[in-house]
Specification:
The chain is of the alpha/beta class. Helix content is 39%, strand content 14%. It is built from 16 helices and 16 strands. An eight-stranded parallel beta barrel has the order 1-2-3-4-5-7-13-14, surrounded by five helices. A two-stranded parallel ribbon has the order 6-8. α4 packs parallel to α6, α8 runs parallel beside α10 and α10 crosses α13. It is globular. Bound molecules: 6-O-phosphono-beta-D-galactopyranose.
Length: 490
């Protein structure tokens, strides 16, 4: 669906830029780009033992315990695209596009290989210090996700991951080390990537693998509580260590539309949206919303929560709200499986008014504007779009060039929609990092084939390839968008 505008809107649109210090850039995640899974002391992590193929989802969802590499499986994150050894080359390319910011995440088991050590692994700390200094060399502001699904396997096998309150100690230790070591190098932090993902993919959201017969909702929400308190503690420490620090929460967003005006469908879409926002309500407002407490009552969920927890949540709310947007979704009170389409982990009823990507993710730039407005209305805190992009099959032509006009079209329409949210709706947006600014491993499928980058990487789903980096057509296009601060969008 092309983002339509009236003539006068187009006129107004073309005159305006984005805010003066708007943070344009691109986003990555350690587990999807670094590779070097066992280099310089890095310990085994949950994100390493996710195989590509049909069994991946059972591991991601915590239904199947796969705590080690097993015969007969391929694990794409072991090497991925080797950002660990090639970060200088990659950051130079990001700088060539004019990035103002670069989003990356910390591999927890690089800093604490087992997770419960008292002292960090210096080689891990040195790696990220080198990366941040490389960014600053080009005037690029690092935007650091402390946990982008990573959890050391030792913490999972010994303590059960985030279901165990001891994780508050280990995560606080990690944060204190990061904030102290990188003071002056990093000031934008995100505590947990897509914290709502824990409700759908608990093994990557919270290092949870379920035991036979246990109450999964009880386990998930207790783990959620531990992460929310940890996020508040991280916010407290970040501000104590450096008053310059800005801490954000992060959710996988995308407005739910009711399938019809039947009040039952509208109610269903409101419930699904609340599922998306519930945890952010806590991180942004400082307390659990009544609808969550009532749901726990109905479902017999009893959370171990102390007075101190409640006080921490209340006092240390976030400075900004960051989120991923790929697609809007559709909810209905009665759903027939054949109506469903794919989406970022969450299934959605197919929207007949929208086109979809090759992976079935619906393309809805106006939905992006709607989601921006909903989040702004709900929280009235600065918004940071930290993931938006199109996963597509990019095929080099006979000369090795990639003509990803489809990706340019997707990004152009979404940036236009974001611009309207800012200039016509008054939404405060501080930055935009496209997802997967360089090709690497897909989180949901483990594929290399599902490419998001402005930079093509020669590697296939089986790990074959030279890892050679090649600029796509969208590389120069995005460089112009940034250079013109959003005026150029043709
Ligand atoms: C989000 C994750 C990212 C990224 C993105 C795209 O859930 O925060 O890690 O992977 O989804 O999804 P995919 O890689 O499955 O196409």
């Amino acid at each position: 669906m092309v983002y339509e505008r009236s003539k006068e809107e187009e006129e107004l649109y073309m005159q305006k830029e984005f805010p003066k210090d708007f943070l344009w850039g691109g986003a990555t995640a350690a587990n999807q780009c670094e590779g070097a899974f066992d280099v310089d002391g890095r310990g085994l992590a949950n994100v390493d033992v996710l195989p590509i193929g049909k069994d991946r989802w059972s591991v991601v969802s915590g239904e199947r315990k796969m705590f080690q590499f097993e015969e007969g499986y391929f694990y794409p994150a072991k090497d991925s695209v080797d950002f660990y050894h090639r970060y200088k080359e990659d950051i130079a390319l990001f700088a060539e596009m004019g990035f103002k910011t670069f989003r990356l995440s910390i591999g927890w088991s690089r800093i604490f290989p087992k997770g419960d050590e008292l002292e960090p692994n210096e080689k891990g700390l040195q790696f990220y210090e080198n990366v941040f200094k490389e960014c600053r060399k080009y005037g690029i502001e690092p935007l650091v996700t402390i946990t982008h699904f990573d959890c050391p396997m030792h913490l999972i096998e010994t303590y059960g991951g985030w279901r165990n309150r001891k994780m508050l100690v280990f995560y606080e230790r990690l944060c204190r080390v990061l904030f102290t070591r990188y003071k002056g190098l990093v000031k934008y932090w995100i505590t947990f990537n897509e914290i709502n993902m824990i409700l759908h993919a608990p093994f990557i959201g919270a290092g949870i693998a379920f035991n036979e017969g246990e109450n999964k909702e009880q386990v998930k929400y207790q783990a959620v509580h531990h992460e929310l308190v940890s996020s508040a503690i991280a916010t407290k420490i970040a501000h104590e260590v450096d008053s310059e620090n800005k801490v954000g929460c992060m959710l996988a967003a995308g407005q739910y539309y009711p399938k019809t005006c039947n009040p039952k469908d509208v109610w269903e879409s409101m419930k699904k949206d609340r599922e998306t926002y519930a945890l952010i309500d806590v991180q942004a407002r400082g307390e659990y919303p009544q609808y969550v407490l009532k749901q726990w009552e109905r479902d017999g969920i009893v959370i171990d929560m102390t007075e101190e927890d409640i006080a921490l949540l209340k006092q240390y709310t976030v400075d900004f709200i960051s989120f991923s947007y790929y697609a809007s979704r559709v909810a209905a009170h009665q759903v027939d499986d054949k109506e469903l389409t794919a989406g970022n982990i969450f299934k959605s009823v197919k929207n007949p008014y929208l086109d979809a990507s090759e992976w079935g993710w619906q393309i809805d730039p106006l939905g992006f504007r709607i989601t921006l407005n909903t989040l702004w209305d709900r929280y009235q805190k600065p918004l940071f779009v930290v993931e938006n992009g199109l996963g597509a099959v990019d095929t080099p032509d006979e000369r090795g060039n990639i003509h990803d006009d489809y990706r340019i079209a997707y990004l152009k329409d979404h940036i236009k929609a974001m611009k309207d949210a800012i200039h016509k709706d008054g939404v405060e947006v501080i930055g935009y990092t496209t997802w997967g600014c360089i090709d690497f491993v897909s989180a949901s499928t483990g594929e290399m084939k599902k490419r998001y980058g402005f930079i093509y990487v020669d590697r296939d789903n089986n790990g074959q390839g030279t890892l050679k980096r090649t600029k796509k057509k969208s590389f120069d296009w995005y460089a112009q968008v940034i250079a013109s601060n959003g005026r150029f969008l043709e």
